[in-house]
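Project outcomes to date are best conveyed with an example. Our students and postdoctoral researchers have been running inverse folding experiments weekly, and each run begins with a structure described purely in tokens. The record below, which covers 746 residues, was selected by the lab manager from last quarter's runs and is presented without edits.
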């Protein structure tokens, strides 16, 4: 008894498996995790170290070089990139592509140990190095919190409230608030009053620094109790700071601090970053979901929670979506469902014409069962619904019916030859099952290089191979197992005496004539085929060469650079003016402006720009992705005309891993001046090529430095040290941080 006969005679078991596939596949479809992109591991961590007051060369030699040597001891390391700035060192640690996300926690622990071991080699004055291993976290939902007439402090208060409430939603993994402005209490001291009262700056520093320090005060036994001692005197308001007493060495009197200084509360004079939404100051909330979560379900829960919170948030505080991944995923899945329905209609329609109504329904049913079976196995193997797996299912739709068509048509032909249905099924399955399996495996192997590749592209597209593998193998299995049963039960044929009557209709007759013509004129046929092949190859040269297509998400970025060293407030002013222009362009729906760095990583294929006061970014949402090229060209032309010293770069959302420029040239050597000279020559070559755009180097421009000449001889005579000079200059021009003020959980 072969498979076909078993399927027919044991139809109860066969129907049970069909019911399992239908129920299990339908249930699995609703339980499958849903993402915009596949779960892709960004194998990158950052090591940040602050060294206040150090020059870039000092940072490089005393911090970066030592940490690089420690990190290079990692056996899993691919390579490390480092950046040394005034007072700041940053290492980008990239791990070899063969390691998976299950390996990374252990690798990051080892990285921390290497970095911690190197701390003893770092100079005095440097801060402890920090390893950031969540650099690759993706925040699939970005909310801009704005407040008309509200201060940053008030917006932050409600952003914190929203964050706490959203954290309660099952499936939400992490929530980050970006754009928070650092609050400060400014003490502007009158030097004249200090001098007349004999009060030194050090007295004020020590008083403020020590007043709010949390220290252990001990405990005391009182009867049967052991009571903790907690002295008063903690600074808990601006008024408390104003009323602090400082002793005058000239008069031996205690002077209130507000008698010699003006004390105000505000925000840091120079912000580290700024965010605006449609021109309004904003804070950005990024929401990431847990691995394996359904982003559509979580997105609906987030929206429901935001509606519930409206009654608890003052009028004027608004939460606006900058990017809503659940909506993008929902659109993609709807497109897939539409494709399945269209495929079923087309397949059944074509088969109705050429094979009959019953045959069409049988093959349509096999197609639907194969899709449901694929969903069931995807759920068991933790394969999510995302753009790659959905694409694989759509690709497979056209191939899932091939096996069923071959077997169904063969059985139909044999039944019309007066062969018993069971015997026809036996013969057809026996004749075709192995050739069909070979053809199916060949179709699967065509996608194997993509799915089994060890590079980042292979990891990103792996679900393409696995979904094709599952769906095509199921189509073969269902064709040899279910089609014989369906044909036995539902196919009704008219008995025909001769086989030739099967091929007597006009379609077969015309096809037979074409075959005879080709066989008669063999040479001409071969020449024609070669010519057509040549035309195909020539035409292929006009096809755009790109592994991943352009995204259809109606959003793009405008990256804006001024000369390196530009004050962030000057960059902000430019961004404000450009934003007003962009907002007036027809088709633009919203503009999110980030000054000083890039936005939170809101999609897998986006890499945020790191902190830079000369940098700004626009996230522009438009009505349709089809108008992006037109609008982006208009914006770029406006910037180049009105801000000729700037470097604008338009960037569309990409699909697949990658980033940076399409062509990069790297020069290395011991002399920075020589490297800059070579880089300038390379840039000139690229700029002279009409096909090259957005030519720039990552060293950027040299930054100006003011260098007061320190006379060691005079300094020794007057007792002024280099540290005294640095403190005075810092206090005079930038302000000196001298203490910590606590307020609730801030």
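After processing, the design step wrote out the following sequence:
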């Amino acid at each position: 008894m072969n498979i076909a006969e078993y399927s027919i005679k044991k139809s109860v078991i066969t129907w049970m498996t069909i019911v399992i596939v239908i129920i299990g596949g339908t249930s699995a479809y609703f339980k499958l995790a849903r993402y915009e992109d596949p779960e892709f591991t960004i194998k990158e961590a950052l090591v940040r170290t602050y060294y206040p007051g150090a020059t870039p060369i000092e940072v490089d030699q005393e911090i970066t070089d030592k940490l690089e040597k420690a990190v290079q001891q990692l056996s899993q390391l691919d390579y490390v990139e480092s950046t040394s700035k005034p007072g700041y060192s940053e290492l980008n640690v990239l791990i070899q592509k063969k390691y998976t996300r299950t390996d990374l926690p252990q690798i990051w622990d080892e990285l921390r140990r290497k970095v911690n071991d190197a701390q003893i080699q770092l100079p005095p004055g440097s801060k402890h190095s920090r390893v950031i291993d969540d650099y690759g976290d993706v925040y699939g939902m970005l909310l801009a919190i704005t407040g008309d007439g509200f201060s940053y402090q008030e917006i932050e208060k409600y952003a914190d409230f929203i964050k706490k409430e959203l954290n309660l939603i099952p499936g939400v993994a992490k929530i980050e608030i970006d754009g928070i402005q650092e609050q400060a209490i400014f003490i502007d001291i009158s030097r004249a009053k200090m001098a007349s009262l004999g009060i030194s700056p050090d007295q004020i520093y020590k008083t403020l620094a020590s007043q709010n320090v949390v220290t252990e005060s001990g405990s005391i036994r009182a009867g049967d109790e052991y009571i903790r001692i907690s002295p008063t005197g903690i600074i808990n308001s601006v008024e408390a700071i104003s009323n602090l007493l400082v002793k005058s060495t000239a008069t031996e009197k205690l002077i209130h601090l507000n008698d010699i200084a003006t004390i105000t509360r505000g925000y840091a004079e120079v912000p580290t970053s700024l965010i605006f939404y449609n021109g309004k100051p904003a804070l950005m909330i990024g929401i990431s979901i847990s691995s394996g979560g359904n982003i559509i379900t979580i997105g609906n829960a987030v929206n429901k929670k935001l509606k519930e919170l409206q009654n608890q948030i003052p009028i004027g505080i608004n939460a606006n979506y900058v990017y809503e991944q659940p909506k993008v995923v929902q659109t993609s899945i709807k497109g897939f469902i539409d494709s399945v329905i269209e495929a079923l209609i087309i397949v059944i329609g074509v088969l109705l014409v050429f094979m009959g109504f019953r045959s069409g329904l049988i093959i349509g049913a096999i197609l639907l069962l194969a899709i449901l079976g694929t969903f069931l196995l995807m759920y068991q193997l933790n394969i999510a619904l995302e753009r790659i797996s959905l694409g694989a299912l759509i690709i497979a739709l056209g191939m899932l019916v091939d096996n069923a068509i071959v077997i169904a048509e063969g059985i139909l032909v044999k039944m019309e030859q007066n062969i018993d249905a069971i015997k026809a099924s036996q013969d057809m399955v026996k004749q075709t099952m192995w050739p069909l399996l070979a053809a199916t495996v060949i179709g699967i192997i065509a996608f194997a290089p993509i799915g089994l590749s060890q590079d980042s592209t292979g990891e990103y597209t792996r679900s393409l191979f696995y979904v094709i593998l599952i769906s095509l193998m199921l189509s073969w299995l269902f064709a040899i197992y279910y089609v014989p049963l369906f044909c036995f039960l539902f196919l009704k044929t008219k008995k025909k005496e001769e086989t030739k009557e099967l091929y007597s209709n006009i379609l077969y007759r015309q096809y037979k004539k074409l075959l005879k013509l080709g066989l008669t004129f063999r040479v001409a046929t071969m020449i024609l085929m070669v010519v057509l092949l040549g035309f195909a190859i020539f035409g292929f040269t006009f096809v755009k060469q790109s592994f991943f297509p352009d995204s259809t998400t109606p959003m793009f970025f405008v990256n804006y650079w001024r000369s390196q060293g530009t004050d962030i407030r000057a960059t902000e002013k430019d961004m404000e003016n450009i934003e007003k222009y962009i907002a007036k362009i027809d088709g633009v729906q919203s503009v999110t402006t980030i000054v000083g760095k890039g936005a939170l990583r809101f999609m897998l294929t986006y890499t945020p720009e790191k902190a830079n006061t000369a940098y700004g970014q626009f996230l522009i949402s438009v009505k349709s992705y089809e108008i992006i090229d037109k609008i982006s060209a208009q914006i770029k032309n406006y910037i180049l005309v009105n801000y000729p010293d700037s470097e604008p770069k338009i960037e569309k959302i990409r699909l697949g891993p990658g980033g940076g420029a399409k062509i990069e040239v790297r020069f290395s050597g011991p002399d920075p001046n020589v490297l800059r000279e070579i880089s300038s020559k390379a840039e000139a070559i690229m700029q002279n090529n009409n096909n090259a755009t957005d030519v720039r180097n990552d060293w950027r421009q040299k930054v100006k430095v003011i260098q007061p000449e320190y006379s060691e001889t005079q300094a020794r005579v007057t007792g002024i040290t280099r540290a005294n000079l640095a403190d005075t200059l810092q206090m005079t021009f930038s302000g000196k941080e001298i203490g910590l003020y606590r307020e609730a959980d801030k």
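The mean pLDDT is 86. The first strand starts at residue 44 and ends at 50. The training component of this project remains on track.
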